[in-house]
Amino acid sequence: MTAERALRVSQSIKKELAEMIQRDLRDERLTGLISITEVECTSDLRSTKIHISVFAPAKTEVPAGKAEDQAEQKPQVSAAAAADLAAEKVVECLNEQSGFIRGEICRRLGLRFAPEMVFKLDTSLERGSKVTDLLGKISRGEV
Fold first, then answer.
1. Which DSSP state fits 117?
2. Cα separation of 118 and 21, whole Å?
3. Given 13, 84, 121, 125, which is the most exposed site by the fewest CB atoms within 10 A?
4. CATH assignment of the domain containing 77
5. What is the pTM of this model?
6. Which tens digits make up the pLDDT trace of 3-51?
7. CB 98 within 8 Å of CB 72
8. Other Cβ atoms closer than 10 A to 53
9. DSSP line for 21-71
């Protein structure tokens, strides 16, 4: 099997999977903006690694009366830690539903074998943003 076919199939999987996440998958853990950054298929199309990036939504504010009750029950979590936790829940949910996703992808693309799928969190966008911020601070003379 050629590398060109694996590349075409990985692009097709990326497109179909984005549509499935948006329309077909219903789970309360799938929150925020979920982007598929890369799909890596093996040359025999038996397995794929799917890298996703999650932009978690901002937390909604709790009404004043309930904020005191919740503060006693849970310790406060930083926004970055909450976003990381939400992103990991999304990856966990997608890995749990990989059987359904595999079957649907196989049907939609007309593949002979449903590739085994592993979802991984892609943090390269966050790292790139941090590097850009650092370079901006250096150019302004703040560092």
1. E
2. 15
3. 125
4. 3.30.300.20
5. 0.73
6. 888 999 999 999 999 999 888 888 888 888 889 999 999 989 899 999 9
7. no
8. 19
9. HHHT---TT--SEEEEEEEEE-TTSSEEEEEEEEEPPPPPPPPHHHHHHHH
